[in-house]
Specification:
The protein is of the alpha+beta class. Helix content is about 50%, strand content about 15%.
Length: about 775
Amino acid sequence: MRERGCRLLFLFLFACLALLHGALAETGTDLILGGVISTDGEVQHKIPSSDVPGISGNGTCTSSFYVSLSVYLGEDATEHFRGIFFKGRDNTERTPSIWLVPHTNQVTYRVMGEQGEVWATSRRELKLESWSHLVLTFGKKMGSKNFVMRLYIDGEIDSEIELRSPPVLNDADFLLGKDVGATSKGFVGLLSQLEVGTGGESFYPLLDCEVRQKFASAARNLRKITRRDHSLWTCQREADLADLVKPGHQGVLCPTHDDDAVDEGEECSIEGKGSVFEGNWELLRKSHEAKGNEKIPAILQLAWKNWLGLDQNPKSCHTALFYMQMASSIASTNYQRPGQQFSVEEVLLSERVHQSRQDNAGTDADDSWALKTMAEGGSADAALTLANRHFYGHNGFPKNMTEALSYFKMAHDLGSDVGSIALAKMLLRGDLVDGAAQGGGQRAIELYQGITTRSVDRLHLSESYNGLGFAHFYGKGGLEPNRTEALANFEEAASLGSSQGALNAALILNDEDPGHKARAVEYFKVAAKNSALANHYLGQFKAYGEGGEERNCSSAFEHFWQMAKIGPWANELSTGLKSYLDGDLDGAYAAYKRAAQLGYSIAGYNILFLLDSRRSKRNNGLRRLLGRDEGERFLADDPADTRVVLEDVILGGVEATDVLKGWAHQKLGDCYLFGDTHGCAEAKPTKAVEHYEEAVLRGNVAAYFSLGDVHFFGADGVERNETEAFRLFRQGHERSGRELASLLALGSYSILSVLGFLKRVLVL
C-alpha cells in the first residue's frame, strides 16, 4: 500500500513538473537572423517591429520574452557606448537594448519601466575577436509579483536585476548595430543567430538548461558557417558541446531534440573553400574592413550566399537583404557623383562576338577608326557612338569624360538633338569640373530651352524639361533655387515619358509633406522601369513597409539589386569579354567567375560556354560556320562549377531572362542525365526530365530533343515512350525551323537526340 502511495505521489509530482514545464516553455519563437551580418560601426540593420511581435506593442509588458544573439567582437573598447541592438525611436524607448560599455568590453542591458530606465552591467567582458553568445531574458520572479531581467553569456548566468514594475514596450523597429540617433561609431564585428521568443504568462521564458542548449546549437551553426576558412575560430571542445545537449541533461524539463545533437566525431577543420564562392570568413572580414567601392564585391557575395543558402549559410532573406541594401546604398551614392555613371554590358560569348566586337583592340579597332572617320566626315550617329563608348567605358574604350564631351559637342554641332541633350547633361552635372566652371550651367540651359522651342520629339522634350528642372532645383546657370518650378518641369518631363523626370519628381514629393508619399511612390514605380536609383527607393519602401507599400523582403531584395549591379564592379563583364577576344581563356574565365560571384547571371552562361569549349578540342568547320571560334582551349576547371553555376548563379539569381533560364534548365538536364561527365556527382534521370520539362516551358528548342531522347530510349525511373518522344521531336522541329547546323548552334545537348530526330522523324 505504501509502495502504491509512493508511486501515485511520484506520478503526481511528474504531472506537476510537466505542467510547470508547459508554463515555463516558450509559446512563440522567431528566428530572425540565421546568417551572419557584418557591421562596420556605421551601418545598422532595421528589423520591422511586426517581425518581433513578442517584444512590440504599446503599454506595459505582461508576457515573458527572451532575445538570443551571437556576437563576434571585432574592435576593442572605445570611449563611447556601442550599440549591439536597440528597440525604440529615441532614448525614451529602450525596451530592450544592449550596448558595450565605454572603456571596457562589458555589456549593459536595459529596458524602460513605468518609473524610468532599469539597467544592469555584465560581470564578464566579451572576448575580442571571438564569438560570444548572449541571451537576455525577462519574466516574473517565482513567488513574487516583481519581474527579473537576466543576462546569460555563453550558456551561463552572468547577472540579473529585479524590476518593481513591468517594462514599457514600444512599436519601433528593432535595430542591430549602430543605434538610433548615435553620432559616434557603433559596434564593429559580426552578429548572428538572432532569435526572439515569448513565454506567455510564465515565470521564465527559458530554463537554464535551455539557454545552454541554445548556446551549443548556435556554436554548432556558426562553426558550420565559418569552419572552412576562419583561422581565428576557437572551437568548443566536442565533449563540452555534447555534454550541454546530451539526452536527459537537466532532467525531464529539458528534453533534447535530435537536431540539437552534436556529432562528437566532427572535426573543427579550417581547410577548403567553396568551388565558386569565396570563403565566408574572408568575405565577412572584407565587408567591414574595406572602404567605399572596395566593400561591394564582398558584400554582394554575402548577399547572394545568404539569399541562396550557399556554403553552409542558412537561407535567410533578412540577412541577404541587409547586404544587398548596403551594396545598393553605396552604389546609389557612387552613381550620383559626376562622371560615375556605369551600365552593365551583357554579351553572350556564343553570339559570334569575334565578328561583332573588337573590345580587345579598343580605340585601335577597325570599327573605331571607321567611326572616327565617319564622325569627322559629318556623321552625327558615329559621333554619338564614340561619345557613349568614352562616357561608359565600353567596347574596350577607357572611360574618358573629355573625349566624351568632345564627341557629344560634335554631334550637337552636326544638328543632333541627342547630342545637344547629352552635352547639356555633362555641362550641368559637372562631369568635367572645368566645363562647369566656364559657364557650363548657362550653356546647358540654353541648349535645353532651344530643344523645347524647336523639337516635336517627346523623348527629346522630356529630357530637356528634366534638365531645366534640375537647373531650377539646384540654382544652376544663374537661376535661383526653386523647388516649385523644378517640380513643375520634372512632372512635365514625366508626362512625356521621361523616367528621370519621374524619378526627380518622386524625390521632391518624397521629401515634402507625408501626404505626398503615395504620389511619390507612383512616380518611383514609373521611373523604376529605366532608373536604378528609383529601384533603390522602392527597395526601401518594400523593405520597411513605407510609402503605403506592403513589406516584401524578396521584392525589396530584387529592387536593391537593380541599383547594386550598376557600378565599376560591373566592369568584370567587360574584362571577361576583352580577355576572351584576346584568346586568354583563363583570364576570361577568372573575370566571369568574379562577375558570377557578384550575381551577374550572364556571367554564369559565359563560364559554362568556356567550360564547353574546353570539352570540344577540335576546331572543325561546322563550329567555325556557327561562329564558335575556339582559339586556345581552356585547360582547367572545377567539375563542380557546372551545377553550382547553373543552379545558384543563373536559376538562383533574380535577373536571368526566361531564355537564359530555359538554357540553364536544359544544361542541368544534361548534368543530371549524364552525371559526372557533365558536372553532377551522379546521374539522376528523373531529375533530368524535370529540368528538361522546365526548359520546354520556357521555349528552349534543344530541350524538346533532349527530353524526346530520354523518352525514346528510357532511363532509370523513366519508361520508354516512343509516342511521346516523336511528339517532342516534331514540336522541336516545328519551333526551330532550321537545319541541323542551326539546331546545334542553340547550345550543347545530346547530338544523338538530333540525329535520332532526323532518322526517326524526318523520314516519316
